[in-house]
Structure formats: structure tokens, C-alpha cells
Amino acid sequence: MTREQLATWCCTAMRAARKPPESWKALRMRAKCPPMPGNAVEWAVERKILAGKGNGVLDPRGSATRAEVAAVLMRYEMSRVLLSPQ
């Protein structure tokens, strides 16, 4: 999985969470139509979900390590919890 694909997944999941589907089928259909990857990367960077690899390198098309996936999922969950209505 590339870092770009990971950002796209996070963006799609956040959209699905904000607008609950009527059924699981609707969720599967929505997941097949992710936003443009470049926009998802921007979205994830702006929300500090996806960070650079150091030395100013973002590398969205590079493979994500297990540690990077874990960090992104943790940041995604933290942002989701912080943004959810109470």
C-alpha cells in the first residue's frame, strides 16, 4: 500500500463516517469511488494525519511501512474522535 492509497482510504473513511450509509452495500459502493488521490494527500497532510519522511520528503507514491500505517491510523482515529460531534 502506498502512502497515497493510505491517505485516500482515510479520506474516504472520514466521509463515510460523516454521512452514514443506509446499508453496508452503500458503503461498499462509496468505497469504490475514492476522491482524487492528490486531494486526499493534501487533506491528510492538512489534518496532520500524513507526515513527511524527513528532510522535507513527503513521498506519497512510496510504500508505507507497517510503522507508518500504524502511525497514520492512530492519527486518523485521533482526528476522527476530536472532530466528532459530542
Low-confidence segments: 27-35
- The percentage of residues in β strands lies in under 5%
Tell me the number of helical segments per DSSP (H or I, 4 or more residues long). Answer: 4
Helix amount: 55-70%
Q: Please state the CA-atom Rg, rounded to the nearest Å.
A: 13 Å
End-to-end distance: 33 Å
Largest sheet: none
What features would you describe in this structure?
With 86 residues, the protein is mainly α. Helices cover 60% and strands 0% of the residues. Helix 1 crosses helix 3.
How do the helices and strands line up, and which of them pair or pack?
Elements: H1 3-18, H2 24-31, H3 37-46, H4 66-83
Q: Which short descriptors sum up this protein?
A:
86 residues; mainly alpha
Quick structural summary:
The protein has 86 residues and is an all-alpha fold. It is built from four helices and no strands. The longest helix has 18 residues.
